[in-house]
Specification:
Keywords: Antioxidant, Disulfide bond, Oxidoreductase, Peroxidase, Redox-active center. GO terms for molecular function: thioredoxin peroxidase activity. The chain has five helices and nine strands. The chain is an alpha/beta fold. Strand 6 and strand 7 form a beta hairpin. It is globular and about 45 Å long. The N and C termini lie far apart (29 Å).
Length: 153
């Protein structure tokens, strides 16, 4: 599991237009993991981050949402809700590296799933802040505030 001060893991994601390596980034990065496209909480989170995209861009902070959903499903999700936040697909490698693929329980049934989590990395690739077990209301705003703090603005 990644901890504060750790560097971006050497994992690759599918951004829908090809693969990209996280460790190749040289700008501040917000990476948020979410369970599933087109569900209530995940939709609200993507809409909130999309609404703040201009603010993140003004700071030079890249933003990427990650789930196990396919690139085609991400495209439909983005089109349906006019999302501007880039969405990437993970085969599970990044989720394991970040410690977000966890055992969950719902109505007594145990299963493996994504723990809604967000990670803010500095431009040198070190983890500045992490949010685990995220509650969606106000979260995107809190991440933006942390990015401003990190950048001293």
């Amino acid at each position: 599991m990644i901890e504060l001060g750790d560097r971006l893991p050497a994992v690759t994601l599918d951004g829908g237009e090809g693969l990209f390596a996280l460790a190749d980034r040289n700008a501040p990065l917000v990476l948020y993991f979410y369970p599933k496209d087109d569900t209530a909480g995940c939709t609200r989170e993507a809409q909130d981050f999309s609404a703040l995209m201009p603010d993140f861009a003004a700071l030079g902070v890249e933003l990427v949402g990650v789930s196990k959903d396919s690139a085609a499903k991400h495209r439909k999700f983005s089109e349906k809700y006019q999302l501007t936040v880039p969405l990437a697909t993970d085969d599970g490698t990044a989720m394991e590296a970040f410690g977000v693929w966890v055992e969950k329980q719902l109505y007594g049934r145990r299963y493996m799933g994504i723990d809604r989590s967000t990670f803010l990395f500095a431009s040198d690739g070190t983890l500045f802040r992490a949010w685990r077990k995220v509650r969606v209301p106000g979260h995107a705003e809190a991440v933006l505030a942390a990015a401003k703090e990190m950048l001293g603005t």
